[in-house]
Amino acid sequence: MNKRPKGQSSFKQSAKTFIEQESLDEEQLLKFEMLLTSQEVEITTDSSSEEQVISSPVTKRGGRAWYGLSALAASLVLVFMLSVNYLSPVPDLSLQIAEEVAMNHIKMKPLELRTDKIKPLRDYFTELDFSVVGSSIISQQNINMLGGRYCSIQGVSAAQIRYETDTGQRVTLYEVGYDVQRYGDIPQLELGEAPLSLDVKGINVSIWVEKGLLMAAVKSIE
Residue 177's beta-bridge partner residues? Predict the structure, then answer.
């Protein structure tokens, strides 16, 4: 007669747990199901000899049955994890940053400190792990500083400095310590690289690294 071994049930439970933890989308879930179907293992028991035989590309008998099933289960999960990690689209960190600062600019929360000088802002932002600085790109524009407030970029505390042009257009500059592992490869002014320009939600966002800080200048598209 046919019977399913305890190991097969355990593997199915492990697979279910893996799917729940990874929050797989429909395409990834379909890949996993196809992988399981193509590698299905069936164990049969001979009623006369009680000898277990695994139907697989390499037949294993007796005490090796559970080992064979465990190895196959581990291989399936490993192969699928690799396919999820390496075949799935890599998130665009620059786009994520642009969308986040654009939303903050649209909300335009009240300033915590009003000033038209950088020094009072530097003295105010004592909870940051960096010192705010003036940007050469901002200084080249004919805009006036209004003040600043605390904010965050990708979960890290940052400074938000607000400016206004002579025509009344608001410009927001965001500054945060640059970490390439967290924010990805961003153009650096000191290396002669031009800022990255992205348009999201009707907002123009320029992103660059200057003086060791990640900076993002945000303004509405005219």
Answer: 213
How long, in residues, is the chain? 222
Give the tens place of pLDDT for each residue, 205-218. 999 999 999 999 99
CB neighbour list of residue 160: distance below 8 Å, 6 or more residues apart:
104, 148, 149, 150, 151, 172, 173, 174
Tokens of 159: 């400074």
CB 202 within 8 A of CB 220: yes
Model pLDDT for residues 139-176, shown as the tens digit of each residue: 998 899 999 999 999 999 999 999 999 989 999 999 99
One-letter identity of residue 41: V
- 51-76-30 Cα angle (round to 5): 120
- Cα separation, 180 vs 132, in Å, equals 19
